[in-house]
Design a protein that fits this description.
The structure is a single chain. The chain is mainly alpha-helical and about 200 residues long. The protein contains ten helices and two strands, in the order ββαααααααααα. Strand 1 (about 10-15) and strand 2 (about 15-20) form a beta hairpin. Helix 2 (about 35-45) packs antiparallel against helix 6 (about 90-100) and helix 7 (about 120-135) crosses helix 10.
């Protein structure tokens, strides 16, 4: 699974580099506005300036750079034709960013066996927000600014810690293997924790 800077996308616009960060907020807002990442990718592929601007506004955390980028488009007398051609030159990078937002670059960790429950991106984003602000104890702002992969990995780490802790609290089996702490959790709690680690399909 990609973490931290690995999921950042860099684009060049008028000699300025913009870093796009695939945060939970960006994923949630863009998926909701375009009713799915497939529609967003199609708009970018077709050269929609609105889609380009939406993606850059959602992914760029540098307010100064973002304002400089948007200024020509907001001016009533600006000639945006050359600017549009420059933006089109970043089509590949923007499409890659959408793929990352959709979770397409995340490894499946070689998981096999029982089939996983399919959920929508909106459901996944809701579960990640609940995990960040609930199970992990992060602030809403920190949760929105985190990447989905960071929330998933932090939650998995916390779950593993609690599982090990329960094994210590409830002792070990006679043959020396640690008791599975998840046996002490309710079926509803197990389902909720397991669902958070699943990517939307």
């Amino acid at each position: 699974m990609r973490l931290a800077a690995e999921a950042d996308i860099h684009i060049m616009f008028c000699s300025q580099v913009f870093t796009l960060r695939a945060t939970l907020r960006a994923a949630y807002c863009l998926n909701r506005k375009y009713r799915g990442f497939a529609n967003l990718a199609k708009a970018i592929q077709e050269g929609s300036f609105s889609a380009y601007q939406d993606v850059i506004k959602a992914g760029c955390a540098d307010d100064g750079a973002l304002n400089a980028f948007l200024k020509p488009f907001n001016a009533s007398d600006a000639d945006i034709t050359p600017l549009g051609e420059v933006i089109l030159g970043n089509r590949h990078e923007l499409l890659e960013f959408v793929v990352i937002l959709a979770g397409g670059t995340q490894d499946q960790d070689g998981q096999t066996g029982q089939p996983t429950k399919l959920i929508t991106h909106e459901e996944l984003h809701t579960q990640l927000y609940q995990a960040g602000t609930g199970l992990l104890g992060w602030t809403p702002e920190d949760t929105w600014e985190a990447k989905p992969s960071e929330i998933i990995n932090a939650n998995q780490g916390r779950f593993a810690f609690v599982k090990d802790l329960l094994g210590v609290v409830f002792g070990k089996q006679e043959h020396g293997s640690t008791i599975d702490g998840t046996d002490k959790l309710t079926a509803e709690m197990r389902a909720e924790l397991n669902a958070i680690g699943r990517g939307a399909r």
